[in-house]
Description:
Elements: E1 2-5, H1 13-17, H2 38-45, E2 49-54, E3 57-67, H3 81-95, E4 101-109, H4 118-132, E5 137-142, H5 155-159, H6 171-178, E6 182-195, H7 197-204, E7 211-213, E8 222-225, E9 230-242
Parallel strand pairs: 4-5
Antiparallel strand pairs: 1-2, 2-3, 3-4, 5-9, 6-9, 7-8, 8-9
Amino acid sequence: MHIVDLASRPDLADAALDLGDVGGQFIYAGMSGKIITVERFLRHWGRYFLIALEDDVPIARTLSVPLAFPADDRTELPDHGWDEAIQWAAQDKMDGRAPNALCALEVVIDPKHRGRHLSSEMLKALKARAQETGLSRLIVSVRPIGKEDEPKTPMAEYVNRRRPDGLFADRWLRTHERLGAKMVKICPFAVTISGSFADWWEWAGIDLVDGDNLFPGGIAPIIASAERDYGVYVEPNVWMEHPM
């Protein structure tokens, strides 16, 4: 296996995207998700879109964006997590502001190659890329993978679960922890997506009803109102920082 980036191998874009999505395509339907298109990565952040190859075939990808943190106007990681990190990166690009940190947005592994610790290898590659490009932090708005099985459990309760060896009970949080990452805080509004009943059917094949709607890939319910014709999804994540 070797790792390349989108800047050097733009021809791999479609194959890398075909590996799947984190939780589901609906994640990219929000206002922040719409910012991180392949075209924008090619134009602005190609070195931070990494692709793992075997026999020149993508088997994993990871996306990240450089941003300024900490800064005079950014003294804490945002409660709006993934959403606001993407907005910070876009603002910095428009303002010509030099980044000093790298924020990982997703790690996706080909289902046929899971169980090979590729997620850890991709995170290590992100850390190396941050160092190579003069960035001093690697931060991640982590979406705990096991939370999909408990969408109604408060995140504070979920992340406080530990195994007898002291490590996180959640395996994705545990992967980060084993690489030395520390939990900074919960970001309660990491991803917010709103749309009509028809939108949600298009995004995720969900036929919404009044009240809480649980659905595959979600780690929180969609709160819906038929009278107002909208459904709102607010996903909590966990900010973690990797040592450099």
